[in-house]
Structure formats: structure tokens, C-alpha cells
Design brief:
This is KIF-binding protein. By secondary structure, the chain is mainly α. About 60% of the residues lie in helices and about 0% in strands. It has 7 helices and no strands. It is globular. About 5% of the residues have low confidence.
Length: about 210
């Protein structure tokens, strides 16, 4: 993975910032005849980030879990629910491999939300489930617990919108369980997901993390 202060990494961070700006600000001004214009542009930024992360991974000699094509994602769909050993087994959240998994999972998460926002629910669900698959390699820690929770909340909302209340409840209940156990066993302000794509000078302070 590229250094946090390298030119390549700064380019990724700029693309992520642009994707957030397009999604949260510019999209409010999209015309009625093209209501998702900014979110489609944000999607392209996120896809480029994913491809760059995979190229860094391949360049570092790491196992390329997504194949040669940067569009390929994990194919096995994880079963809903928290692993019994999610807090004790898997990649350490602050390890290079754990951070790679979290960053790739975060891009899948943001792509999932993007597709849901543009009313492409099956594609949104696929990206969110791919995020779960990435996280299935890791144990819950301060570096990834926000992503563990957010992706399940989003899947819960998605299934609730389909009136699949039992499935929705399963995701939301698991998210709450992870939150409660994390606060009991660790309790440190977790890494905010936007920090996965921040340069060193833009990382949040302890106080800012606590507030969020």
C-alpha cells in the first residue's frame, strides 16, 4: 500500500474528498431531468479509488483477492450475523492487511450507499455484502468498528424498505450488539471511515473522534 504521504496516496484522498463533495453538496443542485448526475460522478471517483487500491496491493506483492480485473469483487456472500470470534480472531485492525481490508471494504460501503441513493437497490446490496465479506477477514477493533456497524445499519435500512422486517432486524440487531460489546470491551473513540482516505495532516484528533 502506498505511503500515507506519497503522491499516489494524496491523489486517492483528493478523489475521495471530491466524491464526498459531489454526494453531500453538489447533488443538492442537480437538475430535475438529471437528478443523480453528481452521484454518478461520485461513483466514478469511488471506482477509480478501488482500482488504485487494488493496484497498490498487487504492487506490494500482496494476495490479490479480487482477481486481475479491478472490477471483480469477492464472490462468496457472507451469512448475516456476527461471528462468534469476531472480537478475537482475524486480521488485526491496525495491521497492514487489516487496514487494506478496511479500506477496500469502505469503498464497497460507499459504492453500496451510492447505488441505493440512485435507486439501484440490487447493486447497492451487492456492494454492501461485499463490504461484509471484506470485514469477515478482520477482528473488530477501533480501526474498523464504525464500518462493521455502518454497513449492517445500511443493510437493515435496505431490507426494511422491502418490508423484509425479519432480515432487517437481524442486521440492525447485530450492529447494536457489536456497538455494545465494543463499548464494553474497548470504548476508545473509533476511527472515522473518512479517515481511511485522509492524509496525515487531516486525520481527526481524539476529541474530534469522540464528538463524531
Amino acid at each position: 500500500m502506498a505511503s500515507i504521504n506519497s503522491v499516489e496516496w494524496r491523489s486517492i484522498c483528493e478523489k475521495f474528498t471530491n466524491a464526498q463533495l459531489l454526494t453531500e453538496t453538489e447533488s443538492r443542485n442537480d437538475p430535475e431531468n438529471d437528478p443523480f448526475r453528481s452521484k454518478y460522478k461520485a461513483r466514478e471517483c469511488l471506482r477509480e479509488i478501488y482500482c488504485s487500491l487494488k493496484s497498490f496491493e498487487a504492487g506490494d506483492g500482496e494476495e490479490d483477492t479480487g482477481g486481475d480485473n479491478c472490477e471483480q469483487r469477492p464472490t462468496d456472500q457472507p451469512v448475516d450475523g456476527q461471528r462468534e470470534d469476531a472480537f478475537s480472531q482475524g486480521l488485526s485492525g491496525d495491521s497492514p492487511a487489516g487496514m487494506r481490508a478496511a479500506k477496500l471494504g469502505a469503498v464497497e460501503y460507499y459504492l453500496g450507499v451510492n447505488h441505493v441513493d440512485t435507486e439501484e437497490l440490487p447493486a447497492g446490496q451487492e456492494h454492501l455484502m461485499n463490504c461484509l465479506k471484506m470485514l469477515d477477514r478482520c477482528r473488530v477493533s477501533s480501526e474498523n468498528v464504525s464500518l462493521f456497524i455502518h454497513v449492517r445499519n445500511q443493510l437493515g435500512i435496505l431490507w426494511a424498505g422491502r418490508d423484509e422486517t425479519e432480515t432487517a432486524h437481524g442486521f440492525l440487531e447485530t450492529a447494536e450488539s457489536i456497538y455494545q460489546r465494543y463499548m464494553k470491551e474497548d470504548g476508545r473513540p473509533p476511527t472515522d471511515m473518512t479517515e481511511y482516505f485522509s492524509t496525515e495532516e487531516n486525520l481527526l484528533t481524539h476529541q474530534e473522534r469522540t464528538k463524531r
